[in-house]
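Reminder: ligand-aware prediction takes two inputs, not one.
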Amino acid sequence: MRSKNLLTVLLLFCVCTMHAQNNNAGITIKKTAGFPQFLINGKPFLMLGGELGNSSTSNIDYLKPSWKYLQQMHLNTVLVPVYWELLEPEENKFDFTLVDGMIADARQHNMKIVFLWFGTWKNSMSCYAPLWMKKDPKRFPRTLDTASRSQEIFSAFGKQTLEADKKAFAALMRHTKEFDGTDKTVIMVQVENEIGMLPTSREFSATADSYFNTKLPADLMSWLQKNKNNLVPELKEKWEKQNFKTNENWKNTFGEGVWTDEIFQAWYYARYTNEVALAGKKEYDLPMYVNAALPRPGKLPGQYPSAGPLPQVMDIWQAGAPALDMLSPDFYNPSTKYWCDLYVRNNNVLFVPEMQFDKTCAAKAFFIIGHYKALGFSPFSIESENNASVPLAKSYDVLQQLTPFIVNKQWMDMDGFLLDKQNKSISVKMDQYNLTVSHEATLSWSSEAKDSVWSTTGGMILQTAPGEFLVAGTGIVVTFENTDKNLVTNIAAVDEVRYENGKEIKGRRMNGDQDHQGRHVRFSVGEWGIQKVQLYNSPAKIDN
Ligand code: DGJ
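Here is what comes back for the chain with DGJ:
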């Protein structure tokens, strides 16, 4: 009898583990410090992506003409909106036609997909929620504007709203697993889109106020205490000013004002999103992230979408939404370095799901992938040009060739660079060398040298062996010096190279004018490529 019971337990255990394993998509993010990897069936993958315009996947035919351009632009990943209103037009009746159609088209063009779940929130609003929800504010409560009028924004405290979102998202993930679990065309999911409270710094309903006036939830407080010394300074300072109080309401813990409102609202957004993500992961465990609308300088919470996954509340999001794999910034401002530096704190891995699709993207792709070891890069409205010769396409061509080196860590060191007239030069040490990477217009003979505005240029450098470097990019000049003053470093050889299916194909030997008679390695503005550099050292002083 006992052994029969044991057998049943064992059997149950096996069934459960099998079920858990089945949910695992085999797609993970390995967060090794300084070198994160996105793995598909154990193989590292770099997302050279583009996000589609908001309405572009609401009709399967609309995108058909664009696929070939996306392919020619060397994209390997497309970020694809999935609309709740079209997925569940009637409660509990799901329509996966668009989802399946997108997956089929992506497969045909050898491309991966990141789904963007336009669920409860899309840029603060709830415009993508189904109409049957919008018309039932009793069941699905809304937030209020400054005049206390109802807005088309669902409250983060709406329990039935959360359940409805969980159910729809779980249905999407279940279906994706059934339809795509073997092929793995869909590799990641964004949960909601640019969550954030407007036009107030937090919700001000009676329910929200009652939460705001009670003690901080115990799970958050214990997380804060455990991580007290590692909190981002923006948050730690606020708590410190209140003498690190542990048993108080939100106002007494972080002080009075809109910044505390933001912290409070961020917690409830994070809890909500975590539940949605968990419901989806239970069905199909793909990596998931949230994206943030970055505030304009000087704006206060509520003037910008308050409480999204922003740097000053990243601890709150990480504590409240452990089911999420990353917090990701969307770039519609020029301060790339400023924001990226903030987003790689707290072991957050960088992925840029949106960036203004202008010509500066081409240089930014090198910088973000080379410097921050980002898992991917993806300008917004990528199908808007249908033009395979845009600058980004040239950068993606280079990045695609370098991908095996980048993702398999076939480098001793790697860095990326972003340059313009304000940031003319950057110095970096690699192994025994000091490298100076400058804008091409720093050369007096460059076509842009006398212009008031210089193009945004950039590149990346991989040290592949002692004294050997792959330099890639556009509009940059690189010089090498030995850190040991007793040694002089010179260029032994510079060769143009291409990589095709793992094979190196040599182009020109870049000597004479091309390397300024042995002084530097260069890509002019408007020129893209990879050059392989070999250095040699000789004594600085020679006794003859
Ligand atoms: C950021 C959003 O996340 C996108 O969906 C889109 O609305 C862009 N802004 C700009 O149009």
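The chain has 16 helices and 21 strands. Confidence is low (pLDDT under 50) at residues 6-21. We will return to this case in the review session.
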